[in-house]
Amino acid sequence: MAADTEIEILEASDAESGERVFAAERPDVCIVDINLPTVSGFELARRILARTASARIIMFSMNDDAIFAARAIEVGAKGYVSKSGDPSDLVEAIREVGKGGVYLPPAMARSIAFAGPAYAQSPLSKLTSREIEILRLLSAGKSLSEIAWLVHSSYKTIANTSSIIRQKLGLRSSSELVRFAIESRLL
Questions:
Q1: What domains, with CATH codes, occur in the chain?
Q2: Closest CA to 122 of 177, 66, 161, 80
Q3: Per residue in 134-186, pLDDT tens?
Q4: Which of 12, 26, 82, 153 is deepest in the core (most CB within 10 A)?
Q5: pTM of the model
């Protein structure tokens, strides 16, 4: 990227400040970490794209599980890069998404394309990105009221979604759901 003459890097420490920076600066490419201190990068991407549908977002995560890449694409991200992958993947993703394209590291693209039964067997594959967000917040110890406030939704919607998640995962109680959330290591 040394040949790129005008690169300005903007930073934000959480989703709320990330949303403010995006609104004020309108960057060409946003690199969004999935694991943010309040709501996740999935929620931040949703908010940015609700504001500007053409925003170019690359999700950046320590998780190289194909399910998270698939959920990032579902939310509207144009790229997904794992922190544990080759550092040149991020550079390539910025170039490609900056030109209006899309980017997945080749190994991850193959993993998604050929995941087949292994992907379907993962309990997380049954959940939408919004449901994964709620599960992540539950694993962080947030109440349904707190989650509703954080994701700008009603308590009733979050309670219903929590019930749907339990059904999808075959869990009988809220405590089983919280235990599953913690065991899934979504934080």
A1: 15-119 (3.40.50.2300), 122-183 (1.10.10.10)
A2: 66
A3: 988 888 888 999 999 998 899 999 999 999 999 999 999 888 888 888 787 66
A4: 82
A5: 0.73
